[in-house]
């Protein structure tokens, strides 16, 4: 049928329009014979078990005796068994062994099938303490170096295998087209050709040559993700709807998949998003018609975190539609038990055909055989010399050097190594911030430098280079000094974030809270040349910061090797370059904060710096004075920062009853950076931070917390009540007398479970008490998962 005459039902793909591909290295007669022999012996329960994956936080190894699941994952903040989330390789190895020991037991009526253990090793084996953290993908795109990508994939595979893990949920082949999307940094580029050029090379790095790489020789199974269109959602909303024509879905968003399939990727992960209103986890035309049939994919399709539950008519524990659409393994982290029981029943009732089950299980077993999981030898396991090895760190440092993009340089770079310089900014000595999301925790926060024992901060790398050249570098986060330095390098940028919480309304950096700009202006006013090193997961509108900088470097999220920054910024003692800038933008840089969809080739393309822009020492260029009109007001987008740096942040405001007085006091880090509230003796009063109602449903389901940094200056003997919305908890114990500043974290779910309307929450914070009570607050806002949370009782 000619394309023009084909049906136009929305969300239904036409496979004949799509490119052909064919899996390599997955099917051979010997493997298929082994798969068929095993499949013919398996019970229905054992087959369904292979199709379901549980998370370490929600299953114990011994439960596999009753529920013979085929796979386990550890989500971004999920711990190994009987150990903290932030653990070195040992507990992870023991966790995989514990699950496999049960799976491989010899007991009557049980077929021993090894589990697959998956982890989001998206920029190195980033869940394991001590692992090498490579720059995130948005940085790697700027390197324009496919050979480097393959080296990074192989190093990641070896560090993953050394921790006992056999499956990496990588690479992300998204083509981000709206930079407000919080997962932009997981994509290599807005340019589908660049994504296409990297796709196969990363698969080959992780898995080895098609059919050759096995766990025994330090390779792991890859998972090309997320199929399909995750980078094209309307407004850049995570898990949203990609409402583009089929031709654009093919040409832009599918660009990386044929090369990945041809390179032998063993698994592909379905995406949370919809295409033209149809959820990908239930889109048979794409999962089966395009991916398995047209593109010849012979591996298996894994779901994303309870993604099947988003299909209309489905729940997390009941979803035949996803399997019938072509999903082979459902990621059911906390819903696995109910999903297992319901799916078994649905097959018996004929709702899911047995042929579909056999196809799914055949694909899963095929991958397990090809990955070497049925071979008990694990020569790479416990190879602690591999994790964070000097060789791997050298690859990561090379990647940092090659990904740096010089946006502006008015003769101040390279820095003479014989000079005396200052290194300033909140991110200068902060390995967590330079690493970004998916670094030991899902959102990448809650970490200290001590959690990265094999890493180097940007400041430490600069100081090392300066010392080697006869000069020196002094760390001064706030830019204060007693002796004027020759130059200041200021390191600042986005705080760590991951999916959902990273979505933006505007591309303006620090909208309504220009702390970094204030620091740059302070140094410029003192007559100190300023080099800005900007950390971000995406291009952002930083015109004011560019204007205040003599040089400006887009350093993206460089990972564990801060020394790579110094390799390019710091010259020799005479100021000659040791390495030149070679990075070029893989994302167009915005001229205004409203240029969310700024992609080369689109109508009206008018960037500040175009795709492939990048200055160098060999080829300098001039950047004039830039407009400081943002083009959009971003302040109403704030849902998480209520009070900090001595003030309530817009769009919120503080209201206090007449029984309370307030005054500024010093915070732990800033003069008058805190607020003291004083309840008069005998008076019952309430202080609240209020504004328009906010929707915190996602934040609540993502395990976010209300976090307060406070000091009790005088305690009360009466009850203290802390509320979000219309739900209050008993906070009396929280505000008992104590020494100094402390931080408390209360999960949002504590308030939701006692009646807070998280969809229309107001006020976001309220404290009621009968005086006398005096409390100073340095910070009130939302924080992601971190140790030490409490859930006080309802009053």
Distance between the termini: 68 Å
Number of extended strands = 29
Largest sheet: 7 strands, antiparallel
Can you tell me the overall shape? Answer: globular
Report on this structure.
The chain is of the alpha/beta class and 795 residues long. It is 25% helix and 17% strand. Strands 18, 19, 21, 22, 24, 27 and 29 form a 7-stranded antiparallel beta sheet that branches. It has a 6-stranded mixed beta sheet with strand order 12-17-16-15-13-14, with helices on both faces. A 5-stranded parallel beta sheet has the order 4-3-2-1-11. Strand 25 (721-724) and strand 26 (727-730) form a beta hairpin. The longest helix has 17 residues, at 146-162.
């Amino acid at each position: 049928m000619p394309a023009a005459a084909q049906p136009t039902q929305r969300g239904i793909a036409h496979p004949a329009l799509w490119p052909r591909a064919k899996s390599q290295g997955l099917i051979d007669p010997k493997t298929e014979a082994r798969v068929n022999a095993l499949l013919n012996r398996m019970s229905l329960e054992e087959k369904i078990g292979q199709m379901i994956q549980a998370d370490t936080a929600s299953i114990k190894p011994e439960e596999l005796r009753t529920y013979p699941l085929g796979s386990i994952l550890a989500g971004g903040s999920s711990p190994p068994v009987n150990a903290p989330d932030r653990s070195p390789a040992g507990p992870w190895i023991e966790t995989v062994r514990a699950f496999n020991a049960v799976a491989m037991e010899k007991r009557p009526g049980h077929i021993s099938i090894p589990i697959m253990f998956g982890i989001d090793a998206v920029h190195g084996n980033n869940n394991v303490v001590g692992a090498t953290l490579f720059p995130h993908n948005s940085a790697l795109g700027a390197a324009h170096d496919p050979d480097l990508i393959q080296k990074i994939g192989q190093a990641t595979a070896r560090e993953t295998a050394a921790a006992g893990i056999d499956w990496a949920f990588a690479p992300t082949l998204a083509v981000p087209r709206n930079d407000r999307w919080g997962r932009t940094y997981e994509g290599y580029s807005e340019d589908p050709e660049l994504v296409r050029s990297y796709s196969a090379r990363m698969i080959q790095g992780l898995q080895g040559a098609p059919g050759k790489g096995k766990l025994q020789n330090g390779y792991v199974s890859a998972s090309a993700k997320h199929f399909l269109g995750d980078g094209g959602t309307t407004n850049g909303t995570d898990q949203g709807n990609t409402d583009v024509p089929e031709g654009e879905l093919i040409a832009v968003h599918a660009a990386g998949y044929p090369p990945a399939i041809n390179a032998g990727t063993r698994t592909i992960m379905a995406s949370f998003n919809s295409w033209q209103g149809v959820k990908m986890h239930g889109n048979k035309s794409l999962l089966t018609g395009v991916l398995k049939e047209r593109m010849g994919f012979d591996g298996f399709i894994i779901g994303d975190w309870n993604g099947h539950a988003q299909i209309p008519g489905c729940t997390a524990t009941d979803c035949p539609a996803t399997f019938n659409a072509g999903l082979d393994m459902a990621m059911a982290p906390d819903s696995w038990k109910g999903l297992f029981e319901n799916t078994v029943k649905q097959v018996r009732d004929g709702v899911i055909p047995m042929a579909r089950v056999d196809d799914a299980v055949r694909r899963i077993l095929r991958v397990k055989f090809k990955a070497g999981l049925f071979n008990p030898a694990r020569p790479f396991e416990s190879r602690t010399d591999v994790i964070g090895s000097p060789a791997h760190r050298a690859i990561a440092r090379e990647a940092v050097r090659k990904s740096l993009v010089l946006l502006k340089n008015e003769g101040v770079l390279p820095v003479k190594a014989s000079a005396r310089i200052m290194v300033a900014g909140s991110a200068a000595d902060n390995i967590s911030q330079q690493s970004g999301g998916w670094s030991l925790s899902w959102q990448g926060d809650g970490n200290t430098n001590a959690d990265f024992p094999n890493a180097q901060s940007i400041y430490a790398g600069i100081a090392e280079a300066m010392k080697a050249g006869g000069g020196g570098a002094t760390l001064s986060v706030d830019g204060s000094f007693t002796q004027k330095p020759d130059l200041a390098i200021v390191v600042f940028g986005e705080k760590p974030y991951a999916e959902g919480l990273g979505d933006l309304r505007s591309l303006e950096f620090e909208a309504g809270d220009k702390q970094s700009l204030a620091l740059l202006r302070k140094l410029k006013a003192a007559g100190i040349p300023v080099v800005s090193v900007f950390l971000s997961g995406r291009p952002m509108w930083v015109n004011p910061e560019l204007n205040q900088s003599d040089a400006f470097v887009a350093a993206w999220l460089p990972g564990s090797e801060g020394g790579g920054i110094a390799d390019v910024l710091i010259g020799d003692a005479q100021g000659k370059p040791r390495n030149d800038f070679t990075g070029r933008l893989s994302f167009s840089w915005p001229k205004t904060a409203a240029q969310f969809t700024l992609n080369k080739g689109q109508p009206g393309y008018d960037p500040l710096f175009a795709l492939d822009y990048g200055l160098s020492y060999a080829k300098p260029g001039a950047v004039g004075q830039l407009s400081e009109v943002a083009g959009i007001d971003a302040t109403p987008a704030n849902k998480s920062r209520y009070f900090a740096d001595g003030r309530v942040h817009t769009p919120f405001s503080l209201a206090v009853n007449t029984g309370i007085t307030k005054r500024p006091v010093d915070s732990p880090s800033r003069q008058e950076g805190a607020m003291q509230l004083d309840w008069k003796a005998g008076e019952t009063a309430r202080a609240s931070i209020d504004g328009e109602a906010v929707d915190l449903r996602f934040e609540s389901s993502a395990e976010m917390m209300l976090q307060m940094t406070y000091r009790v200056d005088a305690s009360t003997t009466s009850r203290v009540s802390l509320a979000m919305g219309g739900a209050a908890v008993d906070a009396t114990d929280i505000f008992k007398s104590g020494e100094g500043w402390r931080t408390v974290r209360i999960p949002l779910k504590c308030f939701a479970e006692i009646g807070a309307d998280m969809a229309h929450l107001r006020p976001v914070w309220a404290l009621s008490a009968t005086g006398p009570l005096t409390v100073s607050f340095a910070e009130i806002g939302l924080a992601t998962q971190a140790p030490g949370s409490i859930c006080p009782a309802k009053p």
